[in-house]
Amino acid sequence: MVEMPTSSAGWPRDEEVDRRLALAREAAREAGELTLRYFRDERLAVELKADQSPVTIADRAAEELLRQRIAGGFGADGILGEEFGEVAGTSGFRWILDPIDGTKSFIHGVPLYGTMVGVEFGGQAIAGVIALPALDECIWAALGRGAWHERPGHPAERAKVSATARLADSLFCTSDAKSFADSGRGAVYERLQAATRLGRTWGDCYGYVLVATGRAEMMLDPIMNVWDAAAVQPIIEEAGGTFTDWRGRRAIDAGEGIATNGHVWPELLALLDESEK
After folding, report:
1. What is the widest separation between alpha-carbon atoms in the chain?
2. According to CATH, what is the number of the domain 167-275?
3. What are the tens digits of pLDDT across the range 9-26?
């Protein structure tokens, strides 16, 4: 676990965090189940947003459900969501929502997508939930409370990163190999492929779940939005790993992100630094 971050707004009481984590878990599950109504439906219409990323009725309906549940339970909290923007709050808490992380996978009928709910306080990500509805899995965490993974037929169990210590023995994941070239980091992808045991594009939030549960050692995204990262950071950190930008700074709004098991983090940062010289 990482050291508890400080906040200019002070730190919220445990019960305030626990109540929000409970709602985040319930709402993420509900919104994820809603997306299954549209999953693998050949009639599903796909639109393009201004940035040319795809969106569907499932994305919008899931975010609307999340917003309704949050407003009903914590009306003074702010909300930022991928599909409907930001509503300011007055409590110091802000919810950060990605109703379908991996919309492209969702559209193609690939089950490796998730519903993500992050909770921020005073600018710090303090809790997160990732529901994987098509896999019937869920992982959640709050700072100081550990990370927990639930899967079919098993009670919730503590999520822990792997003990692998070398890049050469590691599984490296990313959402899209093309994003490395698009961000001017094509050489980094090639070096990672050469330096690690295995590279796979088991991406979006699923790759981060793999790191948090010890099945992959690192997940890198050279292009990332804050709603892609807010739920991830507390989960990875509470599982014993690191979530930072590509320079090793703890952040969810850097426009990029890397999650590791912590053990390979120094070697990975050295590779990234050398690749970008």
Report:
1. 50
2. 3.40.190.80
3. 578 999 999 999 999 999
| Residue that has been written with the tokens 């509805």 in this structure | 133
Residue listed under structure tokens 């921020």: 120
Phi first, then psi: give them for residue 238, nearest 5 degrees: -70, -20
Structure confidence by residue, pLDDT tens digits, 169-203: 999 999 999 999 999 999 999 999 999 999 999 99
pLDDT tens digits for range 114-138:
999 999 999 999 999 999 999 999 9
Tell me if residue 146 falls in helix, strand or coil.
Answer: coil
Decide if pLDDT at 6 tops 80. Answer: no
Question: What is the location of CATH 3.40.190.80 in the chain?
Answer: 167-275
pLDDT surpasses 60 at 7: no
Kindly report the number of other CB atoms within 10 A of residue 48's CB atom: 9
Q: Which residues contact residue 127 at a Cβ distance below 8 angstroms, ignoring those fewer than 6 apart?
A: 17, 20, 21, 24, 118, 119, 140, 141, 142, 143, 234
Q: Which residues contact 36 (CB under 8 A, 6 or more apart)?
A: 133, 134
Tokens 């702010």, located at residue: 78
| 69 phi, psi to nearest 5 deg | -65, -40
CATH 3.30.540.10 in the chain, residue ranges = 14-158
Residue (of 275, 277, 175, 271) closest to 223 by Cα position: 175
Query: Does the reported pTM lie above 0.85?
Result: yes
Beta strands 137-142 and 124-132, pairing class: antiparallel
Backbone phi and psi for residue 115, each to the nearest 5 degrees, phi listed first: -105, 125
Give the pair of three-digit tokens for residue 104: 């492209």
Query: Any idea which fold 14-158 has?
Result: Fructose-1,6-Bisphosphatase; Chain A, domain 1 (3.30.540)
